[in-house]
Every structure is written in C-alpha cells, then in structure tokens.
C-alpha cells in the first residue's frame, strides 16, 4: 500500500505518517528530510539560502520520480507539492492513494508561526494565508481522501485513514 499524505504546513503530515507507518508496518518517506539530506543542509532556511524555492521544487520533482515505483510506503510530502502536478502524478503511479489532511488556516497558523527555520514560506500571516487560499483547491483536487484533521488526536486521524482507505 502506498499512501501519500498532503496538506498545508502544520497539518500534521509527519506525525500522522509515523503512526500510520507503525500501524501498517510500512516505512516512512519524509520528503523534506530527504531533500535536506541530499543537499547536506540542516533546515529549509539553509536550503532556501543556497538555491531559493526553485531548488526545493526541483528536488521534490526528482524524488517523486525516483519513488514512482515504490509499492509500500507512507510518503509525507512538503506542503508545496501540489503546485507541480507532476509530483503527485509520479507518486500516485501504481495505485498510490492521496490523503489530504485538512484544517482551517487559523489552526495551522497557530501551530507553525514559531517555526520559520523549517518554513521560510511562512513569513507573515497575510502571505501565508494567501498561499493557503491559493493551494486549498489544489489539495482537494488531488485528494483521493480528505480527512478533517483539526482538533483530533493523531490516533483518531490514523483510524479514519485506515477505515476510509479500506485496508
Ligand atoms: C513548504 C512546506 C514545508 C517545506 C518548505 C516549503 C511549502 O513542508 O517543504 O518549507 O511550500 O508549503 P511542511 O509542509 O512539512 O511544513
């Protein structure tokens, strides 16, 4: 089973990926971390200093292409993958299912406003909200399953995913 978690910054993709992977005995592919490792940088801020957002987007496409044949994994994507359709096209090859973790902007912004090293694109509330509004229809469009992830423990979100995906 290949499950691809999508959602805006702060939606809980990494935490959900870990618990889902435990439950299903799969491993997690954490896209952001692999991009950082391959570039030998410690955080997104350093990556953006090195090559701007474009470098991140190129790596996301490259990894998605590398991972297109993987059959069993939980893939936790970066919040920006929906801006390049090819990324989810690659990742979904061979039957991968996309799960969008949906939460309203005010919930996400509360969670992430302190972390700018990992999220250089979260510069201020206004630009982040614009980004959220721009991307929301894209997350929905590419989602096989939409989970309302606000005010729910990770374990409950994982239950819902397993139930909806009919494992
Ligand atoms: C980004 C989200 C981040 C990271 C980078 C860009 C985005 O990942 O990939 O800072 O464009 O929304 P998370 O969604 O895991 O925070």
Could you walk me through the main structural features you see in this protein, from its secondary elements to its overall organization?
The chain has 167 residues and is α/β, with parallel strands linked by helices. 54% of the residues lie in helices and 13% in strands. It contains 7 helices and 5 strands. The chain has helices at 13-24, 31-39, 44-66, 85-92, 105-112, 125-142, 154-165; strands at residues 2-6, 28-30, 73-76, 97-102, 145-148. Strands 2-3-1-4-5 form a 5-stranded parallel beta sheet, sandwiched between helices. The protein is globular, with a radius of gyration of 15 Å. It binds shikimate-3-phosphate. The site of shikimate-3-phosphate has 11 residues, from loops.
**How many whole angstroms does the radius of gyration measure?**
15 Å
Helix content, binned percent: 40-55%
The H-and-E topology, N to C, reads as EHEHHEHEHHEH
Spatial arrangement of strands, main beta sheet = 2-3-1-4-5
Q: Treating each run of at least 4 consecutive H or I residues as one helix, how many helices?
A: 7
Provide the list of bound ligands, each named once: shikimate-3-phosphate
- Describe the main β-sheet briefly: 5 strands, parallel
What structural category do the secondary elements indicate?
A: alpha/beta
Strand content: 5-15%
Shape: globular
Q: Uncertain runs with pLDDT below 50, 5 residues or more?
A: none
């Amino acid at each position: 089973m290949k499950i691809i978690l999508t959602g805006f910054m702060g939606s809980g993709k990494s935490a959900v990926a870990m618990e889902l992977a435990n439950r299903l005995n799969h491993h997690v592919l954490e896209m952001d971390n692999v991009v950082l490792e391959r570039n030998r940088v410690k955080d997104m801020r350093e990556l953006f200093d090195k090559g701007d957002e474009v470098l991140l987007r190129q790596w996301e496409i490259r990894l998605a292409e590398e991972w297109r044949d993987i059959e069993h994994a939980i893939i936790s994507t970066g919040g920006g993958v929906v801006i390049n359709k090819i990324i989810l096209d690659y990742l979904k090859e061979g039957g991968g299912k996309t799960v969008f973790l949906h939460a309203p902007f005010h919930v996400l912004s509360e969670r992430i406003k302190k972390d700018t090293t990992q999220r250089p694109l979260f510069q201020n509330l206004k630009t982040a909200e614009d980004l959220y509004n721009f991307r929301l229809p894209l997350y929905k469009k590419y989602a096989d399953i939409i989970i309302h992830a606000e005010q729910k423990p990770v374990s409950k979100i994982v239950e819902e995913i397993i139930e909806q995906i009919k494992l």
